[in-house]
């Protein structure tokens, strides 16, 4: 589960659980906002960068030592992260949270294949069984809110390509984090994404200032909850864990989002979905336990 010669300073399960809970808030917050997804993405990235800056003065001094090759990889990672946020958040305008999230659940499968060819990461039979069980559980959880229509198909396609984009982003991160600190990686990648969103908004003539207080609160929460306590933690964990292990965390999102939807929007969870949530948790535990034993 851990990369060679690296041991995390705290048990990895603790930050992994925090990240899983944090990303579950993302679809809820996106649905709360009436702003264009590109504006949401811009402020999500911008506010995250501003929140990070005061905590990395020492590391910022080493930014000049980053090679040109690594700068190229950092920019590419930022481009694919921006694509992921843009496409996935846009998908929520066309399809249900469940339909979008169930496609996003394919992320660990794509990451597993990519990590095998790029890093020779292998998965044991028990871990593979855990992945399969969690995927089946995700299908159960999302089944109660699946949407079938021409509009939903567009949303599903956006979610699919958004998933591919985040897979590329994670594989780049795994490679570059052997040479660049997780803090600098996250800061630069988030900054690149913020710049791309800004350029897109200006070029498209989308207003980035005329929003009520509610929207600014959502923008800030998107930065703090699913990004700082979600993506930032996952980027840090990539120094110690396999990419597939980190990507498995996305399977907790439909469970968390369904629970939050029940309390926030009063959405009923049926027995089929509840069973799916149990399967997701069992699958995640199987996977993590297997990977921990093989570490």
TrEMBL record:
Major localization listed first in the record, in broad terms: membrane
Key words of the record: Membrane, Transmembrane, Transmembrane helix
Name of the molecule in the record: DMT family transporter
EamA domain location: 16-142, 154-288
Lipid bilayer topology: Multi-pass membrane protein
Keyword Transmembrane helix: yes
Keyword flag Zinc: no
One Pfam family here: EamA
Transmembrane segments: 12-30, 42-60, 72-91, 97-119, 126-147, 153-172, 184-204, 216-238, 245-265, 271-288
Family the UniProt entry places it in: Belongs to the EamA transporter family.
Highest rank taxon of the organism: Bacteria
Subcellular location: Endomembrane system
UniProt organism field: Cohnella yongneupensis
């Amino acid at each position: 589960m851990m990369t060679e010669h690296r041991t995390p300073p705290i048990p990895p399960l603790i930050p992994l659980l925090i990240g899983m809970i944090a990303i579950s808030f993302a679809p809820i917050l996106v649905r709360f906002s009436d702003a264009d997804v590109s504006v949401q993405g811009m402020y999500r990235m911008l506010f995250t960068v501003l929140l990070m800056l005061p905590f990395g003065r020492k590391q910022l001094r080493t930014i000049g030592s980053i090679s040109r090759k690594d700068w190229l990889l950092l920019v590419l990672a930022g481009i694919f992260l921006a694509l992921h946020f843009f496409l996935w958040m846009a998908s929520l305008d066309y399809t249900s949270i469940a339909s979008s999230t169930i496609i996003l659940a394919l992320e660990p499968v794509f990451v597993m294949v990519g990590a095998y060819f790029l890093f020779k990461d292998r998965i044991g039979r028990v871990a593979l069984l855990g992945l399969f069980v969690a995927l089946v559980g995700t299908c159960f959880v999302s089944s109660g809110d699946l949407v079938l229509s021409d509009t939903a198909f567009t949303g599903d396609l956006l979610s699919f390509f958004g998933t591919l984009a985040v897979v590329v982003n994670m594989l780049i991160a795994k490679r570059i984090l052997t040479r660049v600190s997780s803090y600098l990686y996250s800061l630069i990648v988030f900054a690149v994404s913020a710049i791309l969103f800004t350029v897109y908004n200006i070029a498209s003539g989308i207003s980035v200032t005329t929003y009520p207080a509610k929207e600014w609160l959502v923008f800030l929460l998107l930065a703090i909850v699913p990004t700082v306590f979600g993506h930032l933690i996952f980027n840090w964990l990539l120094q110690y864990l396999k990419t597939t292990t980190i990507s498995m965390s996305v399977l907790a999102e439909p469970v968390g989002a369904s629970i939050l939807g029940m309390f926030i929007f009063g959405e009923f969870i049926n027995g089929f979905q509840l069973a799916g949530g149990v399967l997701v948790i069992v699958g995640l535990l199987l996977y993590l336990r297997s990977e921990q034993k093989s570490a």
